[in-house]
Write a structure and sequence with these properties.
Length: 221
């Protein structure tokens, strides 16, 4: 019950935060848009030897709130699939063991988030702008897939498991560029690094979520 209450509170916080940003936008010239694209993500920091980046995707909605010709605020509400993959077991990684190329198993860990980036956009010229600001993420679930890569194996080790994320909070900083193709269409590469340590229970150990994103954005008039 304790975890369910916390998850509910965080879900309410997500909705309240985005509604507040929408309300703020009504006082300025505001445009609504949709976005989607690719993620290239992993975990960086301590105890990450052997972890590799994985491709996934994201999609959501955003507002562009004009404060001046040079500055805009862009709050977003985005589903983002992140995570990592590795070709050895976690015990070997944590014990500092070597990672071999002949491992027979590949594990893919998919971390599904609802994220709320709140970015300031500073115009460089009519086509380019610089974007940076905080990002808050709430973990929906963690999906782990283990695949047997040994074609000669008689054991079917392919399996999938999913556990709830209980809206666990992640937060960090995002920075990127925006290129305006026309009045409606733009492209934005972005880098995100988490600032909340994922390993609070392990004294002295620190690692964080990291993701490179490439988005295509469409704004409605």
């Amino acid at each position: 019950m304790r975890f369910k209450i916390r998850a509910y509170q965080r879900a309410v916080f997500i909705a309240a935060l985005f509604m507040f940003l929408c309300f703020t936008g009504t006082a300025q010239e505001t445009r609504f848009g949709v976005k989607g694209g690719l993620n290239y993500s992993s975990i960086v920091g301590d105890l990450t030897q052997g972890l590799k980046f994985r491709f996934s995707g994201h999609g959501g909605i955003f507002l562009e709130i004009d404060f001046s010709e040079k500055f805009k605020l862009q709050p977003e509400l985005v589903y983002s699939s992140q995570g990592f993959q590795f070709s050895t077991d976690l015990a070997s990684i944590q014990n500092g063991g070597s990672v071999g190329d002949d491992n027979d198993f590949r594990t893919n860990v998919q971390l599904n988030f609802i994220t709320i980036p709140i970015l300031g956009k500073f115009a460089i010229n009519d086509s380019w702008d610089v974007e940076f600001g905080p990002q808050f993420g709430f973990l929906l679930n963690q999906v782990t897939k283990i695949k047997d890569l040994d074609q000669n194996s008689n054991v079917n080790a392919d399996r999938r498991s999913s556990v709830s994320g209980d809206f666990q909070l992640d937060y960090g900083a995002a920075v990127g560029l925006g290129y305006k193709v026309n009045d409606n269409l733009s492209i934005s590469p972005r880098f995100y690094v988490g600032l909340r340590n994922r390993l609070n229970a392990l004294a002295g150990a620190q690692n964080y979520n990291a993701a490179i994103q490439l988005s295509v954005n469409y704004m409605f008039k």
